[in-house]
Amino acid sequence: MNNERGRPRNFDAEDALDQAVEVFWRHGYQGASLSELTQAMGLNKPSLYGAFGDKEALYLKALQRYREQRLAGHAAQLATEPDARRAVEGFLQGMTDLFTDEALPGGCFIVNGSADTGSANTPAAVTEALHQGLLANEECLRERLLLARDEGQLPKNTNVAALAAMYLSLIAGIAVLAKSGASRRKLQGLLVCASGLWPGPP
């Protein structure tokens, strides 16, 4: 039972944080109201502040939770798949599946949230965390492509940094389209086109 002094007796911090992830994923930092967060998390405001800190602190925890639960597995697969082209294609497919999952808010938590960056109403720490989240995906791609070039799976003259940035741009574009309601079939067509951009022979 909720009260103004403490948390519910059956309070589950991880479950409450998962609910916050969904609210922030759907609405971004600015669009997510404290009333919606407390309702989704099953907490009153004092309990929320006591368990997670203020809205900024909660957002940063939710972003980290999203990266650990939704992105880490795809990054690991990207790194461990020995065939570089298959690894990148699998990464793109995994992101597309995530962004179009009807059981989830739609799009990408990080890309959706980035729409709030640059505003005076968005804390600098939130902006930086979102920026680092994008860079982390780009770095995963760059490292895998560097290895591919070293192993001869890409031509020696491949501009790995530009290729990684191109794939990140594709992921961000797919996220925006998915959030706006684009069908999975349409996005699969983009992945087919992207496959043809792999440098070197097919």
Task: Please give a structural write-up.
With 202 residues, this protein is mainly alpha-helical. The protein is built from nine helices and no strands. Helix 7 crosses helix 8. The longest helix has 27 residues. The radius of gyration is 19 Å and the shape is elongated. The model has no long low-confidence stretch (mean pLDDT 93).
* Residue runs with pLDDT of under 50 for 5 or more positions: none
- Radius of gyration from the alpha-carbon trace, in angstroms: 19 Å
SSE pattern = HHHHHHHHH
Helix content: over 70%
Question: Topology of this protein?
Answer:
Layout: H1 13-31, H2 34-41, H3 45-52, H4 55-80, H5 84-100, H6 109-114, H7 124-150, H8 160-179, H9 184-195
Helix pairs in contact: 1-2, 1-4, 4-5, 4-7, 5-8, 5-9, 7-8, 8-9
Short description:
With 202 residues, the chain is an all-alpha fold.
